[in-house]
Input
Amino acid sequence: MAAAFRLFLERGYERTTVDDIVALAGVGRRSFFRYFPSKEDVVFPDHERCLTDMTAYLAGSPAGTEPVRRVCDAARLVLRMYAENPSFSVQRYRLTKQVPGLRAYELSVVWRYERALAAYLRGRFAGSADGTLRADVIAAAVVAAHNNALRSWLRSGGTADANTTADHALGCVQSAFGEPQAPPRGLDSGDLVIVVARRDAPLWRVVREVESALGRD
Amino acid sequence: MAAAFRLFLERGYERTTVDDIVALAGVGRRSFFRYFPSKEDVVFPDHERCLTDMTAYLAGSPAGTEPVRRVCDAARLVLRMYAENPSFSVQRYRLTKQVPGLRAYELSVVWRYERALAAYLRGRFAGSADGTLRADVIAAAVVAAHNNALRSWLRSGGTADANTTADHALGCVQSAFGEPQAPPRGLDSGDLVIVVARRDAPLWRVVREVESALGRD
DNA sequence: GGGCGGGGCGGAACTCAGTTCCCCCGGGGC
DNA sequence: GCCCCGGGGGAACTGAGTTCCGCCCCGCCC
Output
């Protein structure tokens, strides 16, 4: 991997052959493909583990957890993996941005994450109306919000705080799709809440007010 | 293309080489790659045109169109393309379902659709708070809803009515994310609106109520 | 200690996608 | 006639990924 990245950064991904890598690393070509099924896999060495981590995390959800919250937290696992090696992640980001083959590979990885989230949500929404549709849409929204936060962090060169941007992005999705879960501060279930808003106020501000009135923040 | 699909259906995609195709078609190998940049492109011959259609459709949006409605309609263009050749689409679906390489290619195509939608939404949401985040999330949600409808239609063998399922799926997204566009029924700007909701009601229902109270539906 | 089986490693050769280079041929202008 | 041009086709090349086989080292059993 070290040899591969040295060459990728020196000459670019496509100008580097597997023979170059194994020659620099001093190993046999056969051994390279033993550890990395394809040349692209060198660039994404940890996604496979992260994917199994995510499915395990979802499978280990205690009963009664709010599903949308859970998938948002699952997405944070990916962000954390990126944040563990900021400089590596940023280098890889620059690489994937300009090599179509790597972008395609990344898409297939992201797709597998999304399917894992969707599968979990489908299980949780089973039986309810439009369950699979809601599961697919929410999974896609979570992935999109996560990617939005991740990319802005990567564009900052890994210097910004990844968690706060992700909290904000995922918070938006969560508040848009999430079910009520927090116990009311002084309210009992069944209480009535009255919200007053001006008609020309922006919708998001009205929603915010509803949320705070309902004790959800 | 006819020769390629005959062989793909007979022996499978991976067991068919480009030499087989050109031998059956009676053309030169060089000519194959003149018309199809890669072997995968034979399977998705019309996506390139559909993508340019979609960008043109979005670019030609009249001023004042509701953005979410517009991207939902843009997604319907893709569905219509599939529906034009049901049997071909179903065959291709079965093929891409079991060939990882074709799935990866399809993902990259879908990604380009999603980026086209997101780019349009980013332009429309420019300046508003969290504009790019909303654009990305909505684009992903629209694509997910479209794919959900498309796949259920494909699984039905192309017999069901594609439009009604798509209308329902996209309608959910549209009502979840759409902006107000209808003029208020009898309210003037500056009027006060009072909304009453039970605390344990699901959030989306509260939001729906706020919207209708504000005359936005 | 000596045979022995298995696993990690390496290399040679192969398949196939995709590219490059060059040729051929037909048509149309000069 | 000659030249130019553009589409088609083939030969040869590059490089990824696979298959097959041989080597060596290590532990294990007799």
User: Anything to note?
Assistant: Residues 27-31, 34 of chain A lie near DNA strand C (CB under 10 Å from a C1'). Chain A has a mean pLDDT of 88. Chain A touches chain B through 55 residues (CB under 8 Å). The CA atoms of residues 121 and 135 of chain A lie 5 Å apart.
